[in-house]
Amino acid sequence: MQHQLSTHRQRLLTALAHKEPDRVPFDLGGSVLTGIHIRAYQSLRRYLGLPVRELIVRDTVQQLARVEDDVLERLGVDVRNVSPNPLRPEIHFKETDDGKYTYYYDDFGIGWRMPVSGGFYFDMFHHPLGGDITEGDIDRFALPDVTDPVRFTGLKETAQGIIDGEKRAVYMGNVCAGIFELYLWVRGFQNGYADLAGNLKLALKLLDRFKDLQIVYWGKVFSVMGDTIDVVQLADDFAGQDRMLISPATYRKHLKPLHREVCDFIHSHSRARIFFHSCGAIRPVIPDLIEAGVDIINPVQVSAAGMDSAELKREFGKDLVFWGGGVDTQRIFDERNTPDAVREDVKRRLNDLMPGGGFVFATVHNIQANVPPENIVAMWETVQKYGKY
Length: 389
What we know:
Structural class: alpha/beta
Radius of gyration: 20 Å
Helix content: 25-40%
CATH class: Alpha Beta
């Protein structure tokens, strides 16, 4: 079957409609979940013979680089990110008294730190609602103003320029982590899980605040951005390598209704497709995510239990788009493996996930610091060769 050449945006929208475009859409840097670490990005630029530039850190915690225009053009990336501006233009970094860590606090009061020597990214060290708290403490907990006009200055014009000028699709990032993620980050993991088991009323009150925050944010987004957004990002990590971190029954009873409410709001206020990020062994609740209104699953962690790419496509391919899963970042992509090993894994994932559309090629989560540029280029060349319909 002959497929007409597409613009970047047409290609992505065709795949999201579960149809086959001319080739598989390709994403690098379209989200903070399909990005590249600043060290790997520097190496890639050198390998591609592109000029050395001062890098812009796109995501502080994960130390992701902003993928620049020349890389987008060289690699034919089909989607570009538009995200809210931070309330604080600059992050105020400090150093611990012992000189071992650089640290800062985010808009929610969560503390993040990175080792000064050899650090790759920031880890949480402070949870603002940790310890013994009451419902009154939750009521008094100050949330950032997600509707502040500063966050949206120039965004609609930027999005329209991407659509009209670059002919790329527009991906809108979220203002914060997912409902359950943010609950654990603010409350602390030990306290958060303990509350779910022993103080459910408190847990649900905090979860509900973060659900409401997301709805307020997306309401502002759609009022400002109109129909310029093709894909919106939701996320919630609730699974590990071999099982879920909460039971499927707990997910269905307490989290699924919150996800459904947010998804219903987004679908009723926009034509955007919902991209939902959840790492790990999430297969037991994939049908629930579909029922909740999720359109796209990411990162498709093929190394986790029950997440075989061929089986996922066969079972859920009619209802879900798979955005990710293109190469196994956990077991194949790093410096321990050769470009040939990468090529074989990419060919396998293309064969599993391409048929019938409904697939956007991206790595399984972000490209980490230790991925050599030879492996990144081997991945890209394989997509170019075997990713045509």
